[in-house]
Amino acid sequence: MNKDQVVGKIKDLAGEAQAGVGKAINSPSQIAKGKALEAEGEIQKKAGDVKETLKDAADAAKKRL
């Protein structure tokens, strides 16, 4: 697990919480901000997944040499 995966997950969870609070207080702007933070977290998490996959592939290639 790398930094992008961890930070992305944190942003995703924070965005969910913010959107939930926005729904509870009926605040469309808070809902939108929460959804945006969720999306940002998902993107960062996916970037971390790609980095991890590339690292694993590089490690496997080194073992074959």
Query: Mind summarizing the main beta sheet?
Result: none
Q: Please provide the count of β strands.
A: 0
- What is the average of the pLDDT values? 97
**Alpha-carbon Rg, integer:** 17 Å
Name the overall outline.
rod-shaped
Total helices: the number is 2
> pLDDT under 50 segments (min length 5)?
none
User: Which percent range describes the beta-strand content?
Assistant: under 5%
Distance between the termini: 25 Å
- Derived from helix and strand composition plus strand pairing, the structural class reads mainly alpha
- Fraction of helical residues: over 70%
Question: What is the helix/strand order?
Answer: HH
Notable characteristics:
65 residues; mainly alpha; 91% helix
Overview of the structural elements:
The chain is an all-alpha fold. The chain is built from 2 helices and no strands. Helix 1 packs antiparallel against helix 2 (28-64). The radius of gyration is 17 Å and the shape is rod-shaped. The protein starts with a helix and ends with a helix. The model has no long low-confidence stretch (mean pLDDT 97). Pfam families: CsbD. This is CsbD family protein. Belongs to the UPF0337 (CsbD) family. Residues 4-56 form the CsbD-like domain. InterPro entries: CsbD, YjbJ_sf.
How would you summarize the topology of this molecule?
Blueprint: H1 3-24, H2 28-64
Helix pairs in contact: 1-2
Give the structure's gist in a few sentences.
By secondary structure, the protein is an all-alpha fold. It is built from 2 helices and no strands.
